[in-house]
Design a protein that fits this description.
By secondary structure, this protein is an alpha+beta fold. Among the domains are: about 270-605, Glycosidases (TIM Barrel), CATH 3.20.20; about 610-710, Golgi alpha-mannosidase II (Immunoglobulin-like, Sandwich); about 735-845, Immunoglobulin-like (Sandwich), CATH 2.60.40.
């Protein structure tokens, strides 16, 4: 019997008592309320009511409710059997965040902070409001218990919208749908497939122009229902584990995303090369094929930075081995690729071939250290790619440290990144495609009480801890080199350790459409560095689909072209020169925008705001009723804060489609054409809209009909976008000035961040940061201010090229700090080149 059994028996008895009370007191609503309401007022004393410095603790006959204010806008809610609190530990939440507390003002049966008011009713029902009295979240029924399981029910209206939960397929908005969290190997998943590879139990709820976030921190198989079963409530539940959730208040969605990064950690700053184009296939074999791919990328001048090697580089698919027959002199190959400015990424699956006494180092050292999970007292063995395999027990710190040492030879050879695949963990023999529920994991990790847990509890964090072991191991081997780790399976907080992708998608137009909402919801769930297999993994894309996918992926965080065995080639040059030219053009544009992309990546490493963003993250009040504008524009998204990508909602069609631009001044990225949409609603996009105010009618969407090689892009007026001359890899030093492309408008500004792109020296001041501003004078002049550099990193450029897009002043002069300079006419407007000495500059077009 498990060591947890006595606690679980008490939990069960308490749950039964509370279930009876719930049965006698709860009622079922028949229709969705128009607004959220508070629970009924307390009419009888609560048992064990105690105000604490940071919140409140209350009990009834069966359970205890604890609510703590971690910040004025962040609450932690826990319910457990009376007298038996759950362990205060988390794989997802940062220790310093979990311990954070603020003082509160006590009220009769609740408390308030400087942002929120919390009330609790006699059934331990919780209601959270802002200080103006707007109910943000309210229990729809008391917590329902079923043995060790439970369900939390919240009120829902027809105007609620839900986002997040990682890369679940389907629409961006989760309203009306239900989901299960159980990391699963789902080759060729479809739009209706659930679950797939990740379990990120975090979501945003938008209601009445206000946004909250909920992290349900439970690693068991959890369930979420956003009005699928009942339109008047949403629920989250689990069959076991702690009832422990965090509420994060905005009111703006961007604020919630930033707070989630505070809670679970942001995506770290990646190495610069990881933002370049990446070429992959299952599988490039033998060595000569890899060399052929690298040579063709360079010969065809397709900018690229990485080549991936899938499992066939290994000896019989055994991790941490080399097939020396197909890959003779493997270190020589890595060095050869590096000389051509390619960074090699190797797959390293978590299963270790079960090969006792056969000289397989990974198995022998793992066995000697007792690093494998157990089943019935023995190492668990299950079939995967190498055949019978054992699985590292990643919940042990010492096992993760051992795992990290396995990368030493590859790192010494010059391998740049690693790919943790199959880490749900996938096992081939069972219908569940994973190991049995009663496999034993030993939790031996700082912050946790040492104990043994079943796979039911650890399954969803197995991939997270696998990627954690990889990242930590690489840092131990190269402390001043930023690791690049790509993981397929993960849990909330996994963005601290690895980038991710959407798994084994398919070469279909529908899966191209799915890519945008999946990456957007991953970004809202903490994973700013994410992508999808470009072209689709399963199947062979027709030429127009592959071209369209490569075009779109140029404006996504990770741009990796990948394909399965048995499919036709996916490389950019297949299908002839016409298609290759289009594909190259968009990859080249990505590299021109690399300063903008890298700056955005650095920003997300600090504030958690993702690289790829839904429209509502930048314009939360762009519609008269505050519904997310994304509902009207399913193909649109923001690439960083300034560039709006407007793909067709049906990219396989050639018919015209509409583009919904938020209120404001916009510019066509390709032509510089100005689109003035300042007459539409949404002029108060940083405020909560007054529901009684009369909205200005919105301007209608614009209609576009792009050609086969065209992807509409629009830039917000008031943006300054840094760009660079074209290079063939991020290792190459650009030749020429840094371009500052200025799109005049209100609050005109832009940012630039630079460092060496690979080390942590930026933490010691080896970086460059600039914040540009611009303004339009009463005389029509355009002034661009370049400040003094921040940081001590020396950049690659010695001059700025200032491009004034759409500037139509009749004057034809430019001055730099009051001195005349040459003015150049361009297809986008006017330009001037000025020397950069690191000192402040003012450039005026007049």
């Amino acid at each position: 019997m498990s060591a947890l059994a006595p606690t679980k028996n008490l939990f069960y008895l308490a749950a039964c008592a509370l279930s009876l009370a719930i049965f006698n007191t709860s009622s079922i609503a028949q229709s969705a309320p128009a607004t959220l309401s508070s629970p009924k007022a307390v009419t009888e004393p609560l048992q064990g009511l105690a105000h604490t410095a940071s919140g409140i603790e209350l009990s009834n006959a069966a359970s205890t409710l604890m609510i703590d204010a971690m910040r004025p806008d962040v609450l932690r809610v826990r319910i457990y059997p009376k007298g038996h609190p759950a362990e205060d530990a988390s794989w997802a939440v940062l220790p310093e965040a979990r311990k954070a507390r603020v003082s509160v003002t006590s009220e009769a049966a609740g408390f308030s902070t400087s942002a929120l008011r919390i009330a609790v009713d006699a059934n331990l029902g919780v209601s959270v409001s802002d200080l103006a009295g707007n109910v943000l979240q309210s229990d729809a029924a008391p917590v329902g218990w079923d043995g060790t399981g439970f369900k939390v029910s919240k009120q829902k209206t027809g105007d609620d919208h839900f986002f997040g939960l990682g890369d679940k397929p389907g629409p961006l908005d989760r309203a009306g749908q239900s989901f299960v969290m159980w990391n699963s190997d789902t080759f060729g998943w479809q739009e209706s497939t659930d679950p797939i590879y990740k379990s990120i139990p975090f979501f945003l709820e938008m209601h009445g122009g206000r946004t909250i976030g909920i992290l349900f921190d439970n690693t068991f198989r959890t369930y979420f229902d956003f009005g699928h079963e009942r339109a008047d409530r949403y629920t989250f539940s689990a069959p076991d584990g702690p009832l422990d959730y965090y509420l994060l208040y905005g009111p703006e969605p961007k604020r919630v995303v930033e707070t989630y990064a505070w809670l679970t950690g942001p995506t770290p700053l990646p190495p610069l090369w990881a933002l370049g184009f990446q070429q992959s296939r299952y599988t490039y074999i033998p060595r000569t094929r890899v060399e052929e791919i690298a040579s063709r990328l360079r010969a065809d001048k397709i900018p690229s930075d990485a080549i991936y090697l899938d499992i066939d580089y290994q000896n019989h698919n055994r991790p941490f081995t080399i097939d020396s027959a197909s890959f003779p002199d493997f270190p020589g190959l890595i060095h050869e690729l590096a000389a051509e400015h390619f960074h090699t990424v190797l797959i390293t699956d978590p299963h270790i071939a079960y090969l006792p006494n056969q000289g397989y180092m990974a198995y022998d050292t793992g066995k000697a250290g007792d690093h494998f999970v157990k089943h019935n007292g023995q190492d668990y063995v299950g079939p995967v790619w190498p055949g019978p395999s054992v699985f590292p027990d990643f919940t042990r710190k010492q096992t993760r440290e051992w795992w990290g040492t396995l990368y030493k030879d590859f790192v010494d050879d010059g391998v740049a990144g690693f790919w943790n695949d199959m880490n749900e963990p996938a096992v081939f023999v069972y219908p569940s495609k994973t190991m049995p529920d009663d496999v034993q994991h030993r939790i031996e990790d700082p912050g946790f009480a040492p104990r043994t847990a079943t796979h039911l509890e650890i399954h969803n964090v197995y991939g997270l801890e696998n990627s954690r072991g990889t990242r930590d191991g690489l840092l131990a081997l190269q402390p001043n080199v930023r690791p690049f780790v790509l993981t397929r399976a993960t849990y909330a907080g996994g963005q601290r350790y690895a980038a991710t992708w959407t798994g084994d998608n398919s070469s279909t137009w529908n899966h191209l459409r799915q890519t945008t909402p999946q990456i957007l919801n991953l970004g809202l769930s903490g994973f700013s560095m994410s992508g999808a297999d470009v072209g689709g993994f399963a199947g062979s894309p027709p030429p127009d689909l592959l071209t369209r996918w490569l075009m779109l992926a140029a404006f996504q965080p990770i741009d990796r072209d990948h394909a399965a065995k048995g499919t036709r080639d996916h490389e950019p040059w297949v299908d002839g020169p016409v298609q290759e030219d289009i594909r190259r053009r968009y990859i080249e544009e990505r590299y021109r925008l690399m300063p903008y992309l890298y700056t955005t990546a650095e920003e997300t490493s600090r504030d958690g705001v993702p690289i790829l963003r839904p429209l509502f993250l930048e314009f939360p009040h762009a519609t008269s009723d505050d519904h997310p504008l994304d509902q009207d524009a399913p193909g649109e998204f923001f690439f960083g804060s300034s560039i709006l990508v407007a793909d067709s909602p049906s990219p396989e069609e050639v018919a015209p489609y509409t583009v919904s631009l938020p209120s404001g001044l916009w510019y066509n990225y390709w032509t510089g054409e100005k689109l003035d949409r300042r007459a539409s609603i949404g002029t108060r996009d940083l405020e909560i809209r007054d529901p009684t105010a009369t909205a200005t009618p919105a301007l209608p969407p614009i209609t576009v009909q792009p050609g086969p090689g065209d992807l509409p892009l629009y830039v917000r007026g008031g943006s300054i976008i840094p760009m660079q001359p074209l290079v063939q890899s991020t290792d190459e030093k650009p030749s020429g000035p840094l371009t500052l492309r200025v799109f005049p408008g209100d609050n005109c500004h832009g940012d630039l961040y630079q460092d060496d792109g690979m080390s942590f020296d930026y933490r010691k001041g080896a970086y460059l940061r600039l914040h540009f501003t611009c303004s339009v004078g009463a005389d029509g002049s355009l002034s661009v201010d370049i400040p003094k550099r921040e940081g001590n990193f020396t950049p690659w450029w010695t001059a700025f090229r200032i491009e004034a897009v759409g500037w139509t002043s009749s004057a034809t002069q430019v001055s730099i700090d009051g001195h005349s300079a040459a003015l150049e006419h361009t297809k986008l407007g006017w330009a001037a080149t000025v020397s950069d000495t690191g000192k402040p500059l003012v450039v005026v077009f007049h």
